[in-house]
Amino acid sequence: MIEPSGRRERKKAATRQKIADTALHLFLERGYDAVGIRDVAAEADVAVTTVFAHFASKEALVFERDQDFEQRLTRAVTDRPPHEPLIPALQREVEALVRHCTAEGSAPVRRMIEESPPLREYEESMILRHAQSLAAALMADPHLTRSATACRATARFTIDAYALACRADDPAATVDEVFRMIEAAWEATAP
User: Fold this and answer.
1) How large is the greatest C-alpha to C-alpha distance in the chain, in angstroms?
2) C-beta separation of 77 from 141 below 8 A
3) 165 φ/ψ angles, rounded to the nearest 5 degrees
4) Among the four residues 32, 40, 82, 140, which has the most C-beta atoms within 10 Å?
5) In this model, does residue 144 exceed pLDDT 90?
6) How far is CA 39 from CA 43, 109, 114, 156, 191, in A?
7) Pick from 98, 109, 77: which is nearest to 164 by CA?
8) Cβ 163 vs Cβ 139: under 8 Å
């Protein structure tokens, strides 16, 4: 995550993190459906409007790293040197993100998401949005000479590699396997 530079930005980031941490604690302790936004606001000692100033919905509280995730993936494309191959850069970023989602203590959160239809639906819409952003970054890169279809498919498979690995018994092997397929498909679409 990019560190905010100014005092005001740091305070906003700290409040946002406090709200997210409080919400996750309450969701895991009481159950996602049993906790409302008012409960989160009261426990975090902020106004309900403050919660909504930082998070658009109750579901967004669970996926508080959503924007960071999306930015990291697009920066893997836009910030890499022109001579650096694309697919290994994407794979390294996905591996780092998978380490986060499979870190110690993450299993209860994954279980909560899997057991909640609203959270699964939110996650699916988030995945689609990430794939669209990544595809846009791929299509905008002047050094990548692939069709829009190839860029969209590569983006979707990259996001799916993350999703599959987070649920796999062997996340690293899953990322490697999916990225071998992505690499082969990317090479096959070269002009």
Assistant:
1) 58
2) yes
3) -65, -35
4) 40
5) no
6) 6, 19, 22, 36, 56
7) 98
8) no
